[in-house]
Amino acid sequence: MDSLIPFTTSGSLVDCVDRKMLVVLRDGRKLQGVLRSYDQFANLVLEDTVERIYHQDVFAELKRGLFLIRGENVVLLGEIDLDQEDDVPLRQVDWETLEPYHRQDVAAKKHREDIKAQVLFERKGFCKEGGEGDGY
Amino acid sequence: MLIFSVFKTLTDQTVTVELKNDLSITGVLKSVDQFLNIRLDSIKVLDETRHPHMMAVKNCFIRGSVVRYVQLPAEHVDTQLLEDATRREAAAQAKR
Amino acid sequence: MDPSSSGIQEPFDLIRLSLSERVFVKLRGDRELSGILHAYDGHMNLILSDVEETIMIVDEEGQGAVNIAKRKMNMLFVRGDGVILVSPPSRT
Description:
Chain A is an alpha+beta fold. Chain A is built from three helices and six strands. In chain A, a hairpin with a 2-residue loop joins strand 3 (44-55) and strand 4.
């Protein structure tokens, strides 16, 4: 007989506790930390959190500590495979070095998206997807 | 509840979830909840180099509100049953 | 047969008439779909089959010209919060 999987938010998250998780937020930030707690809204407690930024084949990290994340801001929660993590072909650099490039990427992307939204709104009757803070 | 029920019948099938930010993730549907949050195992990300943060991730929980589409295995969807269930649910809504 | 189930009382009744027919769906952002409607709910979540998706691509350089890309998918769930409108396919 198949075991009954509880089809609940809690059921989906229960085996992620005390594991190293990737959290992608709606503002585009990527956080990694140990998931300590969650609730039915997918509010999360993330310990020893590190924020990562990426640019081409390079990344940088910044220690952020203990986070309580409001569930509505979460895009996805990924279970990090600690073995595969070592195989990732990216080089690590200092945060201060990479941050300006990252900021540029983000600004360029926003600029492109704004132009696109404007053209599609005026010419094709489309409206913006998503709401505020959707930088992901 | 209709769509929730459909997803429940598709557990252990391979689906492709496309997020509103154009990220596409293929994986095995392990769980779904009433908000249509999705749990996928053994994921493969389309165009992985554009999403380097996903490289070491094998399973994920995706918040329902960020989903644009889910591509479903057509052979596991009974369209006649779906249409009948939709009509029933629509009738039940109207009676309220 | 309950007569009110065949009358059109509200907008969703119109969509009900399109079940198992091809519909045109306009989505927020930059996409349009054409597919056969098999299910919908009060959130405008949809399940469509035999779908053709049209994606609008804005050319930044060439004075914002709009190109299109098309894609086909067999069976698709569409989340309702992205839907702007659902209608019968345009008659040309």
